[in-house]
Amino acid sequence: MKHARTRLPAVVALPFLLALVLDLVFYAALRDRLPTRLATHFTGTGTADGHTGQTAFVLAVSAALVLLGALWAAATLRPGRPAGGARTLAGSAWGTAAFLGFLTAATLRANLRTLARLPLWQLAEAAGVAAVAAGIGLLLVRYVPKPDPEPSTGLPRARVELADGEVAGWARRVDSWWVLAGAATLLAAGVVVWAVLGRVFAVPALAIGFLTLLFARPYVTVDRRGVAVTTGWLPWPRIRVPLSRIGGASHRNVDALMDFGGWGHRVRPGATGIILRSGDALVVRRTGGREFVVTVDGAAEAAALLNTLAERDRGQASR
Amino acid sequence: MLFRVDPTSAAPLGDQIAACVRGALAEGTLDAGERLPAARVLADSLGVNVHTVLRGYQQLREEGLIELRRGRGAVVVDGASPPGRARLLERVRELADEARKLGLSEDEVVSLVRAAF
């Protein structure tokens, strides 16, 4: 197990180290032929419009690569990563490192000419190199042993005692004041933009603000139809997993940033989530193996009811 | 919170919904200040009429367990009393049921309670 803990950080930190070493070697080889002030910022047409001293540029690039490598390595050390998180981390680390490393080398090479130019197509080249590197990262991560599965999946599944013919339903609103605040800010910004710049510019802020407002305080319901997340006052939009597609349910603590990379409707490898905060969350395992996660208080009760109803549904289906 | 009703039972569905809330309060799974689901959401979930749910909520309001406010919905009253009050109300209902079975009139039961007080 010790290997698994140290190998993944190594796999994600390695590309940054490689990029750093290659760029430094490249710089050392070109150093004598480079101008004292390097062209480091380019316009859309490829002409330089910003310059930096040689030492400052090399230091900045090195610091950036070291910092990013450390960040990626640190991200792998967080507990409770979802399955598939290792692949995402390794792929993105290799891609990012290759992109930055390539652009640094391209910038240095561009400065060999008296009139430094870095055309836009070199960005596309960098993206291509990044894609190849990401592929290498994904290949390497295969050699990292998988961590032990989440303990919550191994726990016995909770049930609710339900008599025949009894109808049960569970409903709870997810209160998150900061989503409301965000929606209000967006709407206010939209109104201000409307007044200052005109209607066309205000539309995106107003549209996103309104959508956020719709889902700021969603209802999570568990009943004879399955599990659903709704706005609470409109029949649509809504997200529903019917009982027939539910393999089981449990609850666990989720960390919005570390497990889902943010808030809102999140899609991760192996999981989809409505993540409005960190903390208690209802975890529904679909029959296909994917997880549907929604953060809500009292998720244990919801999971128990969902297990009971799904089992009852399977019993009726096989009868 | 969890609601369960039995459509085949003789007890009115509104009473059953109120009983769920009383039970959750008595057991401590529902706390003071907590919000009950909106009547429309709950009605949709249980497959009953909105007015049935509202009848249940109205009953709880008359018993002093919840507050119904426009815009805020149904909220369990604040303070330490709700759990004790909910337990007492459950027993009052048991008492009324028992008395009815024995054929006692309302006045008789009230005078018995007054004597015991």
Automatic annotation (TrEMBL), chain A:
<feature type="transmembrane region" description="Helical">
    <location>
        <begin position="177"/>
        <end position="195"/>
    </location>
</feature>
<keyword id="KW-1133">Transmembrane helix</keyword>
<feature type="transmembrane region" description="Helical">
    <location>
        <begin position="55"/>
        <end position="77"/>
    </location>
</feature>
<keyword id="KW-0472">Membrane</keyword>
<feature type="transmembrane region" description="Helical">
    <location>
        <begin position="201"/>
        <end position="220"/>
    </location>
</feature>
<feature type="transmembrane region" description="Helical">
    <location>
        <begin position="89"/>
        <end position="108"/>
    </location>
</feature>
<protein>
    <submittedName>
        <fullName>DUF1648 domain-containing protein</fullName>
    </submittedName>
</protein>
<feature type="transmembrane region" description="Helical">
    <location>
        <begin position="120"/>
        <end position="141"/>
    </location>
</feature>
<keyword id="KW-0812">Transmembrane</keyword>
From TrEMBL, chain B:
<keyword id="KW-0804">Transcription</keyword>
<dbReference type="InterPro" id="IPR036388">
    <property type="entry name" value="WH-like_DNA-bd_sf"/>
</dbReference>
<dbReference type="Pfam" id="PF00392">
    <property type="entry name" value="GntR"/>
</dbReference>
<feature type="domain" description="HTH gntR-type">
    <location>
        <begin position="11"/>
        <end position="79"/>
    </location>
</feature>
<dbReference type="InterPro" id="IPR036390">
    <property type="entry name" value="WH_DNA-bd_sf"/>
</dbReference>
<protein>
    <submittedName>
        <fullName>GntR family transcriptional regulator</fullName>
    </submittedName>
</protein>
<keyword id="KW-0805">Transcription regulation</keyword>
<keyword id="KW-0238">DNA-binding</keyword>
<dbReference type="InterPro" id="IPR000524">
    <property type="entry name" value="Tscrpt_reg_HTH_GntR"/>
</dbReference>
<dbReference type="GO" id="GO:0003700">
    <property type="term" value="F:DNA-binding transcription factor activity"/>
</dbReference>
<dbReference type="GO" id="GO:0003677">
    <property type="term" value="F:DNA binding"/>
</dbReference>
